[in-house]
Amino acid sequence: MAIKVAAIIGSNRKESYNLKLIEYMKKRYTEQLDIEVVSINDVEMFSADIEDNPPKGAMDFKTKVRNAEAVLFAVPEYNFSIPGVLKNAIDWMSRSGHDLKDKPTFIVGSSMGVLGSVRAQLHLREIISNPTLQPKLLPGNEVYIGSIHTKMNEQNEITDQGTNDFLDSVVNNFVEFYNKVKSL
Ligand code: FNR
């Protein structure tokens, strides 16, 4: 049975490459992963004043993450870190319910630059290692897809063989990891 995965895209841009990457992964790995994009676009700005009674957008987001069996982040890099909209969604997940806690999780990311969101992903790993978040994060398997616009065709499929081979190995590693840690 495919693992029910909540995909959190760290970009609220309609033409987001990270969204396209996840839509591609959803089709490519349909037997292993049942990926649903859980949008951060309608998540209200976090305030500790409303955290105990989250507004609808935040509540829907938190509930979808909590109900998933696993989480997949797709992160762009903004100013050497993760975009603010993603940090806001993470702040919501860190409070009532602790939605990410112990959830088997892995991370991918892409950008048009050569570094493929490496600095953002390093920050993301540090942020979610906070005890109030702390998913069961797949170690290693760091997916930095640089120059993404040269690696996708008009159907938004990745045409670069090396990237596809690496993604295949990461997904296989995640499924193996998931089966090991899910009941721990
Ligand atoms: C960027 N971009 C960017 N790229 C990068 O490699 N390092 C960086 O620090 C930044 N900073 C940055 C700040 C802001 C405000 C924007 C709008 C963009 C480029 C960015 O990573 C690129 O546009 C990605 O394609 C965005 O991801 P999506 O929306 O395509 O998923």
Describe the protein in words.
Helices cover 36% and strands 16% of the residues. The two termini are 19 Å apart. It has 184 residues and is α/β, with parallel strands linked by helices. It is globular. The chain has a single domain (3-181), classed as Flavodoxin domain (Rossmann fold, 3-Layer(aba) Sandwich). The longest helix has 21 residues, at 161-181. The chain binds ligand FNR.
Bound molecule kinds, no repeats: ligand FNR
Q: Low-confidence runs (pLDDT<50, min 5 residues)?
A: none
Task: Report the oligomer.
Answer: single chain
**CATH-defined superfamily:** Flavodoxin domain
Question: Helix/strand-derived class?
Answer: alpha/beta
**Assigned CATH class:** Alpha Beta
Helical proportion, percent range: 25-40%
CATH topology: Rossmann fold
Largest β sheet strand count, sense and barrel closure: 6 strands, parallel
Q: What's the Cα radius of gyration?
A: 16 Å
What is the overall silhouette?
A: globular
Keywords: Oxidoreductase
EC number: 1.-.-.-
Organism: Psychrobacillus mangrovi
Protein name: NADPH-dependent FMN reductase
What is this entry, summarized?
The chain is an alpha/beta fold. Helices cover 36% and strands 16% of the residues. Strands 1, 2, 3, 4, 5 and 6 form a 6-stranded parallel sheet that branches.
Could you name the key traits of this structure?
single chain, 184 residues, alpha/beta, 6-stranded parallel beta sheet, 5 helices, 6 strands, 36% helix, 16% strand, globular
